[in-house]
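Hey, can you fold this one?
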Amino acid sequence: MDHRLIGGSETRPHAWPWTVQLLSRLGQHRCGGSLIDPNFVLTAAHCFAKDHRPTSYSVRVGGHKTGSGSPHRVTAISVHPFYNIGFASSYDFALMRIHPPVNTTATTRPICLPRYAPLENRLCIVTGWGSTLEGASASASALREIHVPVISTLFCSSLPNYVGRIHLPSMLCAGYSYGKIDSCQYSFISAGSIPRSYIP
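Sure. Predicted structure:
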């Protein structure tokens, strides 16, 4: 799977203190995630498509440059039970339990989860270390962010690249239909979530 964050810009260091980087055992970037509690990280189920073993991964919390931040072991991985059942990429969510628990500091704290789904056309912020150019495979050297509007899932499912690929109950669409900036391969979830305080 590609993990891309096309366009956008480097974030201000520690502007998004809940953004977590998932690394392979060899220290390679795999996915992003959101710290939702001192012990748990929300990420995408597709991050574990090839290997579900917790010992194959580690996370970095509170970092800005790739591989920076405090290291934490992954002790358990729980993929949504309906992931990929009956609909490709549906319920693309997974939880990781990490150890030691994360201490809340100026650079690390859990995300502010929204109470309600974001409204259409509201801007949301996607963060991640994914590659920044179409066709590139290398991850970004520092955390990046893009600002994209929420679009209706019905409109999203009518776009040529997404016909038949949008599972309404478990997906959110955000981006531009004309390709201004992009978060590809479901990296909206793997890169982070929409924090409550940043939904205008």
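The chain is about 5% helix and 30% strand. Let me know if you want another pass with a different chain boundary.
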